[in-house]
Design goal:
Length: 1170
């Protein structure tokens, strides 16, 4: 397993891997004929070999080579417009802009190279082959010298006579190689000489054709720039001759924003002004001196904080130490150090930025405080409270220390002080809530016991070893789990703090924060899941401890994507099994099962039991049939074949964990491991019919599925459960919305409108449910949450004084060796190559480089599987073809070029895909395949390509390398997608930009600046649930759903006409909606129209109810689906596929993703010129 490889070793492997890739696509070092790559020898023209880093002659750059695009500027003239760099397909110039202290001159260095043709070059002789090669050469030279070895015995070439008779020597060497084939002990020496033979190979048919051999000639020159002139032009000379490169500069003098001096704004452009020379790997380097000091753009430009929104002001303050010191033109730029006073600025064709990983360490805090087994019910209450109080005191001390820094911040910028104080006020509120949570545990025995049992459930669900788990439970000690790196678990500080912060509002319906949505805002991979799994356990346990008869849905957990839902469902199922296990072994957790249900729609799981039976029969007969049941192994014992039998028993019904589907036992699944406590029955439901019947404690679903609520009376079981003995009604107590940032745009608007209905239904009891949400990427969360859920939001953890430290989560500091051990981002933009060619070469470079580094299979697994991320299905489709054909060809070419004994052969089954076109059962299978590590006897997946479905839900620790083809439209999408790699080990992300797309080019030129503050670049979400389009699509369904599910007499499909008896309730529902709209309509854009529409819907309903009462055989029903509608029936709602029938009915969605109408285009005639 790769987790056994130390971070320092991983860093060394990643560095070598990246260097190998860079050598292949930029150079130098792509062929290893000489050890000094600065004078490398290659066997083809460098303009063909390399895909980036090429400066073409000015004349060549004006030729588009058939590539078109809005970004091309073939009339570029650097001398007249030095601030502009040509964006042609074959660029002739690069540049950069920066600020520096006003001075008279500026010295900088230009490093570049050209490649000269050469004949019979010396190549390095490997020391381990020296003796063998010497023997071969000596034996072969008996009649006529074929080869020569340098005096220092470090290099080899053809003999001097090669200049007169190359074909003759070539034949002699070939004969010699044929003889050496018969000597196995000479295998390596023979392979080396074959490389020399192939490098110098000449066709015997065309004796005039010379081999294409090129040797790199590095060039370095220093240039002095006169900053006293607004424009500056100079031709670079080398040894008294023009080099073919010219420098153009534009200089402006500007005052600093604080008026304490002046700076120069400098734009430098380097242009290839030669007629035919092509330059490679050109780089500009500027170093700070006593008279040259660099300034960040943020220090020069006036920020005008007062003109920014509150959110933007806060971001500017928190990212004030993330500064931009240069911007590239046609190339990227970097600077060192990346924090503090910059000493060097430089251009780079392949920029890199290492994202600092999160650190959860708190100095001086005992590890026992964060161990879940420190909070078992056997541990004395006083000991637990003391530990938690020490934890809270640490946070208090941190806040107090930050409060002392505010005066210093005020001196830096008075506007910042107000933001700092606001942030620290939020921290104080959080601290007070933590102390309040501890006080609840101190005073409420049931709350403390629920907290203790939740901690135990967290421990139990982590172990996959049934015997060890049971041993820990019986012995009441969990040290065996803690000592095992596979199961050890300690709370991250933010997780424990979140539980303490929210516990009062989770279990106390009268809490001041009950109606506040608590939002976990942690970077992807930070551990949000464990935090809300514990919150679920707390709510369920506290309810069961206080009410032995409690039943029904207690928690609803909603996701936006079926992939995310499927993966998280497996983790939640383990938690629910742990809670049910505890219930079965205690007498104080009630009499009703604690269970989980997956409610995601017919495309992923069966809606009806009859369908499930057929799916099961198909699965038994054809093992390759899609598996819609999602659960592939028992989430408690995790034993192989606990759900799906081996091939020899797949025809036996009772060997399957799905056997209850056929046996009509009233439940869906059972474990086939006789030692498992859930052998008889698993508390998991995956069929809609079973969910409505059993009302699982935790309901897992996608948001779009909730569109069924107004049109399906069975969904009432999800919102209310009555105890026939006591008459008590149980409603969900907790709603969790994961990946909140995805609830935006058209989908978010519809979700927000439907949420009004759910809120009304769930609040019809004694109190509203508690809401939690989580995200890693969001902007304007206050506005989004208000529009979606009509609630205030409190972010957790609250921000501190700097984006890098909020106490609970900090960015890691470099190691003693200066390593960050974070995810490394790499930028690539092709020059003179099409995007397709660049894509092929880059994929092949990643795939091939890992096999040539002399690594063990375990080390190779770090970067064995390459993930490709695409912005559209069309682009992905192209890549799928490329991977099957062109990339394989390129891999063969690389193997031949490098003479490598190790070659990369891609799997015959091709690459895996993860898109919306893939079925849910295939998704589960794909994820399972991706977990297989590369070993000496088992080959892992080579490539996996995906669209934005990858952005959330994939959590596979062995994935570490990715290519993002084109900059995604949203920064949040870019963050989420690239966070899928390097979650536990060191990740490597290549951002492949298109040179013909202005947006891609902009991100490439500002690569470092963008990546150092990615989270600040996240775009605000747009949610308009009460806009006219949203009201037109869903308001009727929303209003009807509100009435159906709060008045039992209106629930049945046949009782739509009973609304005549519920006019006051109808008026109350309308008022509820209008009040909600008004609270979220500060500009009065929607309220009037919404009021009119509500009146029209209500009047429509009442009129048809009267008509139904007065007309024989004219029934009024709620909803008409295409299959069950009848002509003589009146409906209030109909599905979107019934446009030509029942015009009296309003449209209603079957899924909230039915948000856009489709249109057909028919071409009636063609237009031709007269």
């Amino acid at each position: 397993m790769t987790d056994r490889i130390s971070k320092s070793k991983q860093e060394a492997i990643r560095s070598r891997y990246l260097n190998s890739i860079t050598a292949k696509i930029l150079g130098p070092g792509s062929e290893h004929f000489v050890s000094d790559s600065s004078v490398e020898i290659i066997s083809e023209p460098p303009r063909n070999r390399y895909i980036t880093g090429i400066l073409y002659p000015k004349v060549a750059s004006k030729a588009t080579d058939g590539v078109s695009g809005d970004d091309q500027d073939v009339d570029f003239d650097a001398e007249s417009e030095p601030i502009v760099v040509d964006n042609t397909f074959k660029p002739s110039s690069i540049g950069l802009s920066f600020y520096c202290l006003k001075t008279s001159t500026l010295d900088f260095t230009i490093n570049t190279s050209v490649y000269d043709t050469t004949v019979n070059p010396w190549i390095d002789l490997p020391t381990d082959l020296l003796e063998s090669i010497l023997n071969i050469v000596t034996d072969a030279q008996a009649t006529e010298p074929i080869l020569k070895i340098s005096d220092d015995q470090k290099q080899i070439a053809y003999a001097d006579s090669y200049a007169q008779k190359p074909i003759s020597l070539q034949k002699q060497l070939r004969n010699l190689l044929d003889q050496l084939k018969e000597k196995p002990e000479m295998k390596d020496a023979t392979a080396f000489l074959y490389r020399l033979y192939n490098l110098n190979y000449r066709s015997e048919k065309s004796k005039k054709a010379k081999p294409q051999i090129y040797q790199r000639r590095p060039i370095s020159t220093k240039v002095t720039l006169d900053l006293t002139k607004p424009r500056f032009t100079t031709e670079i000379m080398k040894s008294g001759k023009p080099l073919g490169l010219s420098i153009f500069a534009k200089v402006r003098e500007l005052p600093l924003s604080d008026n304490k001096g002046e700076v120069c704004s400098v734009t430098l452009v380097v242009q290839n002004t030669s007629k035919s020379t092509i330059f490679f790997q050109t780089q500009v380097i500027l170093n700070a001196t006593r008279s040259l000091k660099f300034y960040a753009s943020e220090d020069v430009m006036d920020t005008h904080l007062d003109q920014l929104s509150k959110e933007d002001q806060k971001i500017r303050f928190e990212y004030r130490n993330k500064k931009t010191f240069a911007i590239g033109h046609g190339i990227s730029v970097g600077w060192l150090p990346q924090a503090g006073e910059v000493q060097s600025i430089f251009t780079e064709y392949i920029p890199t930025y290492e994202l600092s990983p999160m650190s959860f360490d708190l100095e001086g805090l005992s590890k026992d405080i964060l161990r879940p087994d420190s909070y078992l019910f056997e541990v004395p209450k006083e000991t637990q409270i003391q530990s938690l109080t020490k934890f809270a005191a640490k946070y208090d001390a941190w806040i107090a220390k930050r409060e002392l820094q505010v005066p210093e911040i005020k001196m830096e910028n008075p506007c910042y002080a107000e933001i700092a104080n606001s942030n620290l006020r939020d921290c104080r509120i959080c601290s007070n809530r933590i102390h309040q949570g501890i006080e609840v545990l101190r005073k409420d025995p049931a709350a403390l016991l629920a907290f203790d049992l939740a901690n135990e459930a967290i421990l139990l669900q982590r172990s996959k070893n049934l015997e060890r788990k049971m041993q820990c439970f019986r012995s009441r000690t969990y040290e065996n789990l803690e000592d095992d790196p596979n199961t050890s678990f300690a709370w991250r500080p933010f997780q424990l703090a979140f539980i303490l912060t929210t516990i009062d509002s989770l279990i106390n319906e009268r809490s001041d924060f009950r109606d506040v949505l608590d939002l976990i805002w942690i970077s992807t991979g930070g551990g949000k899941t464990e935090a809300y799994l514990c919150a679920i356990a707390l709510v369920v346990l506290y309810q069961r401890l206080g009410d032995a008869d409690a039943k029904g849905v207690t928690v609803i957990m909603r996701y936006t994507l079926r992939l995310l839902t499927a993966q998280q469902f497996q983790r939640a199922s383990s938690m629910i099994c742990a809670l049910e296990f505890l219930r079965q072994h205690r007498d104080d957790l009630g009499i009703n099962e604690i269970s989980v249900g997956l409610w995601v729609g017919g495309g992923s799981t069966p809606n009806h039991r009859k369908e499930a039976k057929m799916d099961f029969i198909n699965l038994r007969k054809n093992h390759d049939s899609p598996n819609p049941f999602q659960v592939l192994e028992c989430p408690w014992c995790h034993q192989k074949h606990s759900i799906i039998p081996d091939d020899t028993e797949k025809l036996v019904i009772d060997a399957w964990g799905y056997a209850p589907l056929v046996n009509d036992n009233g439940f869906d699944l059972q474990c086939q491991n006789f030692s498992c406590p859930f052998h008889e029955k698993l508390p998991i439901y995956v069929i809609d019919d079973s969910i409505y019947k059993n009302q699982p404690t935790l309901l897992f679903g996608t948001v779009d599925k909730f569109a069924q609520v107004p049109i399906n009376e069975k969904t009432a079981a999800l919102f209310s459960c009555s105890n026939n003995k006591t008459g008590k009604v149980y409603k969900p107590q907790l709603i969790i919305q994961d990946e909140l940032h995805l609830i935006s745009g058209p989908l978010g608007s519809i979700v927000g409108l439907y949420e009004s209905s759910f809120d009304y239904i769930l609040s019809s009891g004694a109190s509203r449910p508690k809401y939690l949400a989580s995200t890693a990427t969001i902007r304007n969360s206050q506005e989004q949450v208000r529009n979606l859920f009509d609630r205030d939001v409190m972010q957790f953890p609250p921000d501190g004084l700097d984006v890098d430290d909020n106490f609970f989560v900090k960015t890691s500091k470099p190691s003693a060796g200066g390593n960050l051990y974070g995810r490394l981002y790499v930028g690539v933009m092709g020059t003179g190559k099409t995007q397709v060619t660049t894509e092929i070469r880059l994929f092949a470079a990643l795939l091939h480089s890992i096999v040539e580094l002399d690594l063990s299979p375990e080390e190779q697994d770090l970067f064995w599987t390459v993930v490709g991320y695409f912005n559209s299905l069309r682009e992905l489709g192209k890549a799928s073809t490329l991977l099957m054909d062109d990339v394989r060809d390129e891999l063969r070419r690389l193997t031949k070029l490098e003479g490598s004994a190790s070659s990369r052969q891609l799997n015959t089954f091709g690459n895996l895909e993860l898109t919306s076109h893939v079925s849910s059962s295939e998704i589960v299978s794909t994820i399972e395949k991706l977990t297989h590590a590369h070993t000496s006897d088992e080959r892992a997946v080579d490539t996996m390509i995906a669209t934005n479905m990858l952005s959330v839900g994939i959590d596979i620790s062995r994935l570490n390398s990715m290519i993002v083809v084109g900059q995604p439209k949203l920064t949040s999408e870019y963050i989420q997608a690239t966070s899928r790699v390097g979650r536990d080990t060191l990740g490597l992300v290549f951002a492949l930009y298109s040179s013909t797309k202005s947006r891609d080019r902009s991100h490439y030129e500002a690569f470092t600046s963008y990546h150092q503050s990615m989270y600040a670049q996240v775009e605000p979400s747009s949610v308009t649930p009460f806009s006219q389009p949203a009201l037109d699509k869903a308001l009727a369904a929303v209003l009807i759903g509100m009435l159906r599910h709060t008045n039992p007499a209106l629930l049945s499909q046949k009782n739509a006409s009973s609304i005549l008896k519920f006019k006051p309730e109808l008026a109350r529902a309308k008022t509820f909606l209008l009040d909600r709209i008004q609270r979220n309509d500060s500009e009065n854009l929607y309220t009037a129209k919404a009021s009119e529409k509500l009146d029209a819907i209500s009047e429509h309903w009442l009129q048809f109810a009267v008509l139904s009462d007065n007309t024989a055989n004219k029934n009024l029903l709620y909803f008409a689906g295409k299959k069950d509608a009848t002509p003589d029936t009146v409906y209030l709602l109909k599905s979107f596929d019934m446009r030509q029938a029942h015009h009296e009915a309003y449209f209603a969605m079957n899924s909230m993703r039915d948000i856009e109408n489709s249109g057909n285009i028919s071409i009636k005639e063609s237009l031709t010129d007269d």
